[in-house]
Structures are given as C-alpha cells and as structure tokens.
Design goal:
10 helices; 2 domains; 41% helix; TIM Barrel
Length: 274
C-alpha cells in the first residue's frame, strides 16, 4: 500500500507529524503534500526520522482557464530557489483571498470576526477555507466545517491564482516530478469534463507536466482506468493518493478509490524516483 497525497496541520489537515508517522506504519511509501508549504516535510526531516519510504511532496494551488487546478510536486530539493519564489507568490495571493472571503462574509451574511481572530488567521503559514470554516463553527454559524464551506465559502473569488502554465514551466527544470492532481476534480470540487481534461493534459504535457494522479479516493474503477489510459497515451507517470486531511475530510490514509478497487499495479511513481 502507498499514499502520495496526505495533508497535515501545516495546511488544512488535523494530524501533526508525530501522529501521522504513527498512522503510516505499514505503508510502503507515502508523501506529505500540504497546500503551498513544505513546513511539514521539513519538520519530518528535521526530526531525523529514518524513513526511506517518505517522499518530499507539496500540492500547489494554480488556475487554468478559470478552473482551480492543483499540481503535485514530488522528490524536490527543499532548498530550491525556484520553488521558494513560487511559494512566496502563492502565499501573497492566498492571504489576499482570505481577506476577500472575510469581506464577503461581512457583506453577504453580516458575519464579523473579532480583530484577534483575523490576525490569528493571517499569522497561519497557509490559511485556507477550512481555517475560516473552523471559526464559523466555533461561533455556531454552522454545525460542521463541511456545512460552513458549502453555505458561506462557496463564492468564486476575484483574486487570481498563479497560472498552471507559469508554475509548471517555473519548476520543470528543477529536481522533482510534476504531477496533475485529481484530474477530474478533488473532493468537493466541480467535475471536469473529459474533453476539457484531455485538452488540459495535452497542453500541460507541452508545459512540462510529467504525470497524472490516476488513483484517487473519490474515483471509481472506470474513472481510474480512463486516467491510466490517458497517462499511457501521453507517456506520463501514474500515481495515486487519498487526499487525507485527518478529521477535516472523511477519507482514510491509503484510501485510493471510491469502490475499493484501486489499480495499484499501474502506479509507477517510485520507479522514476528510484
């Protein structure tokens, strides 16, 4: 078993590194892929843990044709200057998006947070929708994080993300492997139609993308097979991950399909890392 898509407290997961290390015992290979930060990866490495089955990872927030698109980056150099430049740009945009969401809550729902709550959000390494949702639950505007996101945080924002093309081209010559995350859409995201996806993969291949996340917790056997065939047609690496977020999402570590029929034999990410 493997899982190349796991989130921790350093983005919008709920597990700290020590808790996660306990949970991945028995997994052949795994990767921490926090949103737009490598602090979880650094923390694990700094602990000096002897984990040859651990792969550096990150999930980068980008945009393509007005769609939210996530790019997974594996086996990178922690000291990469190009990656640092990408993360600095994303961090600035993310904080602008957070403030925009807070303004929408005030304007559309008459919800106002205390000054210290907003300051605490801005001090986070990687503030995201679940962080705002946690406050909405705390103040009883919603009963759960999922409900808070669906009811209050659904808006399409004006602030722009970095383009997928920019991020891929910026990192393609760096040490590391670039993968298109959950190509049909992630948990709670809008579904991507096959024609749009095919066109995206064709363009991304030209930009420098190297693989596709074909096995994913929300995809069934038919969807996995379609993505595997696409990967083979474009000569792309095949990988898979759960998108585990701890208590924030109902997905378990190592859960790589919705119908318990993961096609593990096709996944070849580690062949390229080795």
């Amino acid at each position: 078993m493997f899982d190349f898509h796991i989130h921790t407290i350093y983005s919008d997961g709920t597990d700290d590194i020590d808790s996660l290390v306990e949970k991945v015992k028995g997994i052949e290979y795994f990767s921490i892929t926090d949103h737009d930060t490598i602090k979880g990866v650094k923390t694990l490495r700094d602990k000096g843990l002897d984990m040859p089955n651990f792969i550096n990872g990150i999930e980068l927030s980008t945009s393509d044709l007005e769609d939210s698109v996530h790019i997974l980056f594996y086996d990178y150099d922690i000291n990469s200057q190009a990656l640092k430049e990408v993360l600095d740009k994303i961090d600035e945009i993310r904080r602008d998006r957070l403030l925009e969401r807070i303004k929408i809550l005030k304007k559309d729902f008459k919800i106002k947070f205390k000054k210290e709550d907003i300051e605490a959000l801005l001090k986070l390494d990687n503030p995201t929708k679940p962080n705002i949702a946690t406050l909405l639950v705390k103040y009883r505007y919603a009963k759960s994080i999922d409900e808070a996101i669906k009811v209050y945080l659904f808006h399409h924002l004006k602030t722009k993300k970095l383009s997928s093309e920019f991020v891929i081209k910026k990192l393609k010559d760096e040490k590391g492997i670039l993968i298109l995350a959950h190509p049909f859409g992630g948990i709670g995201e809008k579904r991507v139609e096959k024609q749009r996806l095919n066109e995206r993969i064709n363009r991304f291949k030209k930009y420098g993308i190297e693989g596709i996340e074909c096995c994913y917790s929300m995809y069934n056997s038919e969807e996995q097979q379609y993505l595997i065939e696409m990967a083979k047609m474009f000569d792309l690496i095949i990988t898979g991950g759960s998108d585990y977020h701890g208590k924030n999402k109902k997905v378990n570590i190592g859960e790589l399909s919705i119908d318990n029929n993961t096609q593990y034999e096709h996944v070849n990410l580690m062949d390229h890392i080795k």
